[in-house]
Design brief:
Structural class: mainly alpha
CATH class: Mainly Alpha
Strand content: under 5%
Largest sheet: none
Number of domains: 1
Helix content: over 70%
CATH architecture: Orthogonal Bundle
CATH topology: ABC transporter involved in vitamin B12 uptake, BtuC
Order of helices and strands: HHHHHHHHHHHHHH
Radius of gyration: 19 Å
């Protein structure tokens, strides 16, 4: 039972950064913008969060710094694609390459340094309940933030006027502009929200998941988060389910190696990425499901009439 609880705890920890990054990207894509720079923003949030936490000794300041770094890094993407109307795919890929290189340079002095870990919440009486106590009442604070964030985004997109406006921009930015909606403003805010979420996900990696700085520690999670948005057909609750499925695959291959299962470790390490490819292939076969919730203006540049 203890082994099962520990595995479930590690799955929740592994799924949290995927969920946060994917929820942020979902809002971005619902506005009609395709930002492939999630990996770059996440790794910049990781180095920014670790650096601030290490220098101040406070993991909370580190977490705040990760959010700010992610939002500022996304602002570079927003300026390029929304104000200068550059290609969103090329700009997003460039952002990822820039983030990976820049984080490696910034984090050189942090390699091997002891990190500060964000402590788990312990609720007296509830945390000691067998099985359920640790799983529900003994997690790190970012876990609860991720669940609350998912619920908030779901409510915002489908229960508020502003969320409806954002979705209308994603479906037809030309029509939204004709109605007097500030398309560029909404998209700027959406992109920065996505960047803040990616930064928070990166901060979780360096302050909770493995409280240290390792170059390229995001390890492709940003790409998995992008795939999760498509897997979920742009629905927040499906992102939540998908994040935990991918988190289980991620942790499952680690435990499989620890248990000495006679399968090459290289194959086990590739399982999360193979699962991502398989899921995308299966989804692409159902065109009706793919097109049903896809924002019609996704990836299309918008230049307002002057």
């Amino acid at each position: 039972m203890d082994i099962t609880v520990n595995i479930l705890l590690t799955i929740a920890t592994a799924a949290t950064p995927l969920l946060i990054a994917a929820i942020g990207e979902l809002v971005v894509e619902r506005s009609g913008v395709l930002n492939l720079g999630v990996e770059g923003m996440m790794i910049m949030g990781a180095v920014g969060g670790f650096g601030a936490g290490y220098l101040t000794g406070s993991p909370w300041i580190g977490l705040l710094a990760a959010i700010i770094v992610g939002a500022l890094f996304s602002l570079l993407f927003a300026v390029m694609t929304l104000s200068l109307a550059t290609n969103q795919v090329a700009t997003g890929l460039s952002l990822t390459l820039l983030g990976l290189g820049l984080s490696g340079m910034i984090g050189t002095s942090f390699v091997g340094q002891p990190g500060v870990r964000l402590p788990n919440l312990e609720i007296p009486g509830l945390s000691s309940i067998p099985v359920v106590g640790k799983l529900i009442f003994g997690q790190d604070p970012v876990f609860y933030i991720s669940i609350a964030l998912t619920a908030a985004v779901m409510w915002f997109l489908f229960k508020t006027r502003t969320g409806l406006t954002l979705r209308s921009i994603g479906d037809s930015h030309t029509s939204a502009h004709a109605l007097g909606i500030k398309v560029i403003r909404y998209r700027y805010l959406a992109v920065m929200f996505g960047g803040a979420c990616a930064g928070l996900a990166g901060g979780h990696l360096s302050l909770v998941y493995t409280p240290q700085w390792v170059e390229n520690m995001s390890a492709g999670r940003g790409w998995i988060a992008l795939a999760l948005v498509v897997f979920a057909s742009w629905r927040p609750w499906r992102v939540l389910a998908g994040a935990y499925i991918f988190g289980a695959v991620w942790i499952g291959q680690l435990h499989a190696q620890a248990f000495g299962i006679p399968v090459p470790s290289q194959f086990l390490s590739s399982l999360p990425y193979l699962a991502t490819i398989v899921v995308l292939v299966l989804i692409s076969r159902n065109k009706r499901l793919t097109m049903m919730n896809t924002p019609a203006s996704l990836g299309q540049p918008f230049v307002p009439d002057r």
